């Protein structure tokens, strides 16, 4: 198949949207945290924990949606740990974030070994099934790509709209953005910076976990070690690429996923077969670095990102 | 002035006491504010004004004593309570989110967080109405970053009025304004009083206090030391009560101008965000003179200070040092050239909080002998140097091994003074050298600058405080939007005349004339 | 709540929080062991015994601590200057790669020449790998946390590509591993008869050198100034960008020595499982050591002890070894709080 023809196939775009879905959830989660002024490097570990928690919940007999809720709650739990340390204690967001990633990853693996001590290959669950939207899914190419996905993908797209609406059209979103721009402004108006930032980190972490759960409950049907493999770090790059705006972040995630879907397909062409597969696997990470470099000059960083707020200090 | 026995009491602070460890910040402070009244709250830095206001706004809880607003007690430790009861505060350092609009800043926190929408149309109408009623013209949809300092202050006042504040507290509101803007502010405050609001005006500018207030309350060492009608007192009396005795500010006799030591020839620098750069500046600093730079903050003072201090280079034009054009220009070459630099913010740029005094003392000279040789540090020399500064500049501290974050602002500034003045520098850049210091330290810093001038140094004094500029400078320039006024000799301009320049008028005329 | 700085901390305030942090870590580990159905006391006892209980255990711990000292030093040096180098893992592999290429017969030199050459070139490789994100940070303001993290993934894939391609050992029966080093390229034993190589000695020497750089040299002063207050350092005339680049070179070089020491000292060839995350664990080591180079040695022994002990405990009672990772993550998070509490008191207002 010619590389150009790949772009015209429905399966390519379907795959791109599927690959984008977990990135959308996690990028939105990170975006909420950073908009409130907190860099959350716990994202990688929280995605691992979410992937395991959602899958395990379903494996233990819960329904799929309750499984998503469990993942969200687990994410919030790690978000709580992160936010206690970074908000009222004002500790280094770099160190705490890496610590949370380590804690989330290792406790997930521990829990996995406890729950399934003997298995060599993990059991599978029945994941979310594609839900074809009548008529719309029949449109050539974009129909199957956009309207024959699993409900979790639809939720991801809905979340972009919801997060954008909340951030720009509600008093809550105004307070979150102000907390990330100038926490003093928030405190002077009688609001609690601590509560707003902690809340944002917890909800954001919940979304990251749902992003992880997408992998085990929609993209695949089982939990593997290393399955998140740096997606969290890529999402941090996507937040920068999206200039801290939900719409642009969505665009970034899809662009990125399209590239990923493309490289998988190029690998199977005669041209791709001659190139070591590692080169293709490197591409997402290289692309992320390039995205950071390109955006570095014009990025509109929230004014108080990574600046702790200590009450009474001016 | 309203009749105090008849008028309704709107705010009552009753016997407020607050201690921090061994320090008593407020000692049984009582204060009563009536409807339609303006009280001036006077006191030096550290007298307890800020603590008192923080207690009123629930940031701190008083050890004893209570607060009543409109006759109802205020629950302690709740930042919202005072706002909801109708008390509004305009902070000295504005609490505005720069990247957001006026409307967003004003409405922030005024609706329940989980309410569905922002209701922008209604908010906009209300802001415009308030702006009209109180003579506070401002565009609700402008971004804060695009506003001038005066406009930002109007937004701060609007924030309080939008919440139906009946009591306005203004902390040093005129410190950053031109004389004309100060007049506008007073106009707004008089309107507010006429509409039945009450005002607490925190300041140390006595002539303003006399102009706007009905009563004055003076705090010293956490205690109320004077309370009375403004008519029963005068400026001299207030000043003496504020500091607890007579203080004599250093007397500035005019200096004798010598050769130009540093000059700018048509220098421009690029704008940085909302901060203007320099617009083809011609300017020189003469030996034996203090050159004052007056202006509203954010009009290019930082750009000029950064240039003279070596932080930036001219984008065009030339920097002339002792008669020679300068090509390589950096903080290090500036230090090497003998420029003493007192930075604007001693916490953020002047010192390293977790370094001790000796490490801070050598910050600019660590690479030179005797402090280091061939890449190796000589800590003994550094400690000796710090000890010398401690002794000759009267830095109060346990010793050179003390971390500088434990020092008071005044002592920190003395260390910086010692650091830069030790080599008897010929050019001194003093950027806001007394901001936030108490009167004793202010006088000390000023006398050091005058002494340096008298031995022939050229001093550039940058300050937002016009009184300070006028008291010390032999020559005054006004800076506005990165443009520089012609030099005005000591005593040739009144504050009001300088204020016209500070507001940005007069520059075009000189440009055409020349 | 609010944090208030403590002017003159008492001995109790300085010592109690870190002690409590360690105690809390142990309690949490015990609870997790109970969750796995084991007796917490025996689990903790087995970890201790497995780490320090015999000559064999102790040597194993020292061997495991060796790369951690290097990566811990690399992180400590960088974090001191607020250069967030999370890429020690990749820098380690860069060093290892140099040894695997040069030491397997390419350079047919005597050990006295070959070993220092390999060590220096390994350091250069690691330094270059960190130079890229450091330059991106200094020149373009690109956050180095994400770039160094992403480079870890890229570089591991690069190593994997080489191990399946040009570096693949023809005698390796198809496994992706490099050819064995020649004898001249192997680090000798520290003490004859004991299974401990000179990498450990080199690690100790490096710690002392890094400590001397930090406290006695102008570079160390500059690095600390840049880390504590970048604005003030820049204003004072310290060349911040150049200091960050020098810091990056030193940090990357130190991390690469971990790879040098593992391949030339312990393993004898390069495989993809050379490092079970030594680069990331270096962050924990450095933080537990409060970024003090001499403290890094102690912290590395502690961390290595927990890993080695947990391995042996897990073999004995079947509690998953991931318990060790949880303990370290918990210790890290609690320790940063504890350090804060030695300097600030929490006030309820």
From TrEMBL, chain A:
Q: Among its keywords, does the record have Cell membrane?
A: yes
The protein's name in its UniProt record: ABC transporter permease
This protein's source sits in the domain of life called: Bacteria
Q: In which broad location class does this protein mainly occur, judging by the first location in its UniProt entry?
A: membrane
Q: How does it sit in the membrane?
A: Multi-pass membrane protein
This protein's UniProt keywords: Cell membrane, Membrane, Transmembrane, Transmembrane helix
Where are the bilayer-spanning segments?
Answer: 6-26, 38-58, 64-87, 146-168, 198-217, 278-296
A single cellular component GO annotation: plasma membrane
MF-aspect GO terms: transmembrane transporter activity
| Membrane as UniProt keyword | yes
The organism is Pelagivirga sediminicola
| Cell location | Cell membrane
TrEMBL record, chain B:
Q: Cellular component GO terms, alphabetically? A: plasma membrane
Is Lipid biosynthesis tagged as a keyword? Answer: no
Q: How does it sit in the membrane?
A: Peripheral membrane protein
Record localization: Cell membrane
Keyword annotations of the record:
ATP-binding, Cell membrane, Membrane, Nucleotide-binding, Repeat, Sugar transport, Translocase, Transport
State the Gene Ontology terms under molecular function.
ATP binding; ATP hydrolysis activity
Occurrences of domain ABC transporter (ranges):
11-246, 262-506
Task: Tell me one Pfam family matched here.
Answer: ABC_tran
User: In terms of domain of life, where is this protein from?
Assistant: Bacteria
Q: Which InterPro entries match?
A: AAA+_ATPase, ABC_carbohydrate_import_ATPase, ABC_transporter-like_ATP-bd, ABC_transporter-like_CS, P-loop_NTPase
On whether Chloroplast is a keyword of this UniProt record, the answer is no
Q: What protein am I looking at?
A: Sugar ABC transporter ATP-binding protein
Species per Swiss-Prot/TrEMBL record:
Pelagivirga sediminicola
From TrEMBL, chain C:
Where it mainly occurs, coarsely classed, is membrane
Question: Is the keyword Cell membrane in the record?
Answer: yes
Extract the coiled-coil ranges from the record.
none
> Where does the record place it?
Cell membrane
Q: Which spans are transmembrane here?
A: 15-34, 65-83, 90-107, 113-136, 145-163, 196-214, 280-310, 322-341
Q: Which GO terms describe its cellular component?
A: plasma membrane
Give the keywords, sorted: Cell membrane, Membrane, Transmembrane, Transmembrane helix
Q: Note whether Phosphoprotein occurs among the keywords.
A: no
Q: Name one GO molecular function term.
A: transmembrane transporter activity
Membrane topology term: Multi-pass membrane protein
One of the Pfam families matching this protein, by short name: BPD_transp_2
Which PANTHER family does its entry note? ABC TRANSPORTER, PERMEASE PROTEIN, GUANOSINE ABC TRANSPORTER PERMEASE PROTEIN NUPP
Q: What is this protein called?
A: ABC transporter permease
**What is the native source organism of this protein?**
Pelagivirga sediminicola
């Amino acid at each position: 198949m010619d590389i150009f023809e790949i772009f015209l196939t429905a399966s390519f775009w379907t795959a791109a949207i599927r690959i984008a879905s977990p990135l959308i959830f996690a990028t939105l989660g990170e975006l909420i945290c950073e908009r409130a002024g907190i860099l959350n490097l716990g994202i990688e570990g929280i995605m691992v924990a979410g992937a395991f928690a959602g899958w395990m919940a379903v494996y233990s007999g819960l329904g799929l949606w309750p499984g998503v809720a469990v993942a969200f709650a687990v994410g919030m739990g790690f978000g709580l740990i992160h936010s206690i340390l970074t908000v009222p204690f004002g500790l280094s967001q770099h160190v705490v974030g890496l610590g949370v990633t380590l804690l989330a990853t290792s406790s997930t693996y521990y829990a996995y070994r406890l729950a399934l001590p003997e298995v060599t290959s993990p059991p599978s669950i029945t994941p979310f099934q594609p839900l074809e939207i009548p008529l719309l899914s029949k449109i050539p190419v974009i129909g199957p790509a956009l309207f024959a996905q699993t409900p979790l993908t639809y939720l991801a797209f809905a979340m972009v709209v919801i997060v954008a609406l909340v951030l720009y059209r509600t008093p809550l979103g105004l307070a979150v953005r102000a907390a990330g721009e100038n926490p003093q402004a928030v405190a002077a108006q009688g609001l609690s910076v601590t509560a707003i930032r902690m809340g944002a980190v917890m909800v954001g972490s919940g979304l990251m976990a749902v992003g992880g759960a997408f992998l085990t409950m929609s993209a695949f049907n089982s939990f593997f070690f290393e399955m998140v493999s740096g997606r969290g770090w890529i999402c941090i790059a996507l937040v920068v690429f999206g200039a801290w705006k939900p719409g642009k972040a969505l665009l970034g995630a899809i662009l990125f996923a399209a590239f990923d879907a493309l490289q998988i397909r190029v690998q199977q062409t005669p041209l791709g077969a001659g190139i070591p597969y590692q080169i293709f696997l490197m591409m997402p990470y290289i692309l992320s670095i390039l995205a950071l470099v390109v955006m570095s000059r014009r990025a509109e960083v929230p004014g108080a990102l990574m600046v702790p707020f200590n009450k009474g200090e001016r | 002035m309203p009749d105090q026995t008849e008028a309704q009491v709107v705010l009552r602070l009753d016997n407020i006491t607050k201690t921090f460890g061994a320090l008593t910040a407020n000692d049984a402070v009582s204060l009563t504010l009536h409807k339609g009244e303006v009280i001036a709250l006077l006191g030096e830095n550290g007298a307890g004004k800020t603590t008192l206001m923080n207690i009123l706004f629930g940031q701190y809880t008083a050890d004893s004593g209570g607060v009543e607003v409109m006759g109802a007690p205020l629950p302690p430790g709740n930042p919202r309570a005072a706002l909801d009861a109708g008390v509004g505060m305009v902070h000295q350092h504005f609490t505005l989110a720069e990247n957001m609009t006026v409307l967003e800043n004003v409405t922030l926190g005024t609706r329940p967080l989980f309410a569905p929408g922002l209701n922008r149309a209604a908010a906009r109408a209300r802001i415009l109405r308030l702006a009209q009623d109180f003579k506070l013209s401002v565009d609700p949809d402008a971004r804060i970053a695009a506003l001038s300092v005066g406009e930002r202050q109007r937004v701060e006042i609007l924030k309080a009025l939008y919440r139906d504040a009946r009591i306005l507290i203004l902390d040093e509101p005129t410190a950053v304004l031109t004389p004309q803007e100060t007049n506008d502010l007073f106009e707004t405050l008089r309107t507010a009083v006429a509409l039945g609001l009450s005002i607490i005006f925190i300041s140390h500018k006595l002539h303003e206090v006399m102009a706007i207030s009905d009563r004055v309350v003076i705090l010293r060492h956490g205690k109320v030391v004077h309370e009375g009608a403004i008519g029963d007192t005068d400026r001299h009396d207030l000043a003496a009560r504020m500091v607890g005795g007579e203080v004599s500010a250093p007397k500035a006799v005019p200096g004798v101008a010598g050769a130009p030591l540093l000059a700018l020839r048509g220098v421009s620098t690029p704008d940085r965000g909302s901060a203007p750069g320099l617009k083809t500046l011609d300017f020189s600093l003469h030996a034996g003179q203090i050159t004052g730079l007056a202006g509203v903050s954010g009009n290019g003072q930082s750009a000029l200070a950064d240039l003279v201090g070596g932080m930036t280079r001219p984008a065009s034009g030339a920097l002339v040092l002792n008669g020679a054009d300068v090509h390589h220009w950096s903080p290090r070459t500036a230090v090497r050239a003998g420029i003493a630099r007192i930075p604007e913010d001693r916490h953020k740029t002047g010192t390293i909080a977790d370094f001790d005094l000796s490490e801070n003392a050598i910050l600019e000279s660590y690479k030179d002998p005797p402090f280091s040789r061939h890449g190796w540090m000589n800590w003994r020399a550094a400690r000796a140097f710090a000890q010398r500064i401690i002794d000759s500049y009267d830095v109060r501290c346990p010793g050179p091994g003390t971390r500088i974050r434990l020092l008071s602002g005044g002592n920190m500034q003395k260390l910086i003074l010692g650091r830069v003045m030790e080599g008897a520098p010929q050019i001194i850049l003093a950027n806001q050298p007394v901001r936030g210091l108490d009167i004793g330290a202010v006088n000390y810093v000023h006398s050091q600058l005058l002494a340096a001038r008298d031995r022939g140094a050229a001093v550039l004094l940058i300050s937002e405080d016009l009184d300070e500029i006028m008291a010390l400078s032999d020559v005054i320039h006004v800076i506005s939007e990165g443009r520089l006024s012609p030099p005005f000799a000591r005593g040739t301009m009144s504050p009001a005349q300088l204020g016209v320049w500070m507001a940005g008028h007069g520059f075009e005329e000189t440009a055409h004339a020349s | 709540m609010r944090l208030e700085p403590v002017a003159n901390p008492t001995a109790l305030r300085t010592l109690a929080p870190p002690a409590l942090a360690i105690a809390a870590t142990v309690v949490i580990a015990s609870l997790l062991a109970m969750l796995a159905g084991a007796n917490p006391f025996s689990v903790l006892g087995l970890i201790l015994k497995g780490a320090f209980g015999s000559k064999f255990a102790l040597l194993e711990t020292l061997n495991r601590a060796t790369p951690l000292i290097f990566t811990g030093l690399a992180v400590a040096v960088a974090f001191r200057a607020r250069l967030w180098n999370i890429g020690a893992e990749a820098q380690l592999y860069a060093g290892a790669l140099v040894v695997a290429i040069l030491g397997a017969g390419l350079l047919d030199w005597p050990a006295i020449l070959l070993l220092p050459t390999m060590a220096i070139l390994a350091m250069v490789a690691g330094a270059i790998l960190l130079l890229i994100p450091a330059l991106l940070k200094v020149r373009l303001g690109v956050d180095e946390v994400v770039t160094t993290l992403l480079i870890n993934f890229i570089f591991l894939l690069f190593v994997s590509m080489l191990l399946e391609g040009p570096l693949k050992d023809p005698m390796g029966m198809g496994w992706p591993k490099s050819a064995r080093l020649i004898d001249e390229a192997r680090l000798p034993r520290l003490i004859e008869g004991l299974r401990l190589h000179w990498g450990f000695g080199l690690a100790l020497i490096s710690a002392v050198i890094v400590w001397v750089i930090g406290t006695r040299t102008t570079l160390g002063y500059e690095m600390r100034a840049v880390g504590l207050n970048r604005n003030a350092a820049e204003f004072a005339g310290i060349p911040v960008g150049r200091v960050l680049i020098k810091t990056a070179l030193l940090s990357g070089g130190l991390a690469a020595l971990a790879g040098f020491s593992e391949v030339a000292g312990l393993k004898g060839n390069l495989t993809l499982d050379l490092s079970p995350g030594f680069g990331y664990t270096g962050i924990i080591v450095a933080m537990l050591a409060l970024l003090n180079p001499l403290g890094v040695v102690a912290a590395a022994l502690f961390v290595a002890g927990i890993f080695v002990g947990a391995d042996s405990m897990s073999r004995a009672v079947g509690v998953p070894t991931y318990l060790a990772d949880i303990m370290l993550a918990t210790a890290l998070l609690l320790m940063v709080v504890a350090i804060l509490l030695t300097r600030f008191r929490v006030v309820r207002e």
